[in-house]
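W.,

You were right to be curious about this one. When I first looked at the sequence I had no strong expectations either way, so I just let the prediction run and decided to look at it fresh. Below is the sequence, 100 residues in total, followed by the output.
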Amino acid sequence: MSPLTVQVQARRRACSGACEWSDVTVTLALREDLHGTVLEVTDGCVTGYESFYLNGMTSWSAKWQAQAWTACAGMTGSWDTLRICASEMDRALRVLGVGS
């Protein structure tokens, strides 16, 4: 069974050069593994491993109101930074049937 997916708008900062922020579209996927439900960035991501478990999460908005999810914190010269704002995360989780 393929994972449920949704596209969201995010902000990405290149790890080299001018280090300027740019708007990007990334795909979030919801899947199950041996430890629980996972939300991961599958397309447009920085490293290909940006994800977190939703175990015990009952409301994205209540836990993270007005904050962005930093999918990748970045490292100058090595990894880009990728952030998804709270409103986009809230919308994505609702589309995926997880949000309150």
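Here's what jumped out at me. The chain has two helices and six strands. And, maybe more interesting for your project: The mean pLDDT is 79.

Coffee later to discuss?

I.
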